[in-house]
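As a warm-up, study this chain.
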Amino acid sequence: MKETVEGYKRRNGCYPEAILADQIYRNRDILVHCKEHGIRLSEPKLGRSLGKVLMKEAEKRIERQDARERNAVEGKFGEGKRKYKLARIYAKLEETAELIILMHFW
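Now compare it with the structure written out below.
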């Protein structure tokens, strides 16, 4: 994920404001990297949950907005898998997989 963030910086000249990633990407290494560069990570924080009761209204609003944006992206992934049959690509080499994907859209 660090490479993706650095690629974003090269293309846009700045780091992203937030990263809407799955919970699997919330590890200490990535958390430190994001904190160093002022990037907000979505999803729950590491450690024991304090519950929604103690969460501030502004944090709840940001969490709901992140969820809405992630749902749109996840929906497009699902559409690609269903409509364009991208879930049925079993190529072993990266180049072959890229070629098959290009052939689906060409």
